[in-house]
Amino acid sequence: MAKPKLVRRALDSYTVKHIGKVICRGDCVLMRPSDSSKPSYVARLEQIEADARGENVRVQVRWYYRPEESIGGRRQFHGSKEVFLSDHFDIQSADTIEGKCTVHSFKSYTKLDAVGNDDYFCRFEYNSSTGAFNPDRVAVYCKCEMPYNPDDLMIQCEGCSDWFHPTCIEVKPEEAERLDHFYCLDCSPENKKKLQNSRVSTRETDVKVDTKRRRR
Fold this sequence. Notes:
The protein is mostly beta strands. It is built from 2 helices and 15 strands.
């Protein structure tokens, strides 16, 4: 005789008792990895369901991949808190949830006054089978023509408005932080770098760089 099919019901929310947090669909969470030496996995909750008694709670998740987990690996422009929203879905026990986190848009992340341990950002979707990204290209800056890494200090040319890494223009970071004006080689009246106590800022905002240093 066939066993009766277990009926499961969807939940709008659920309290994860061992962390004392309420989770809902759409929340981002940290999940316990199979290898304890690795950092927690980052995932977005797509669905929460329990058995008829409200027990044996499971969650359907959509995984975020860290750059080092992708086919191409981590690259210079990837931020330390960057994750990619993948097409990899899974079912996990709610008991594997270690905490809640926030995955910001790239623009929102760059405007944070301080970055906490549970703050991440995402600017790409990732195909886990092919290694393809969406979008497949983003704006590049500096002489090195690299996408923006929000962890890195950059200075803006007042002539062309492009952004440069101090090391790429042979300026020490501590010198760059004291600048008020900067003209790149192409924009300098003397056709050379002109550093005059230059104004420094992160790319997304126009405030002093020391107020945007990421506190971890």
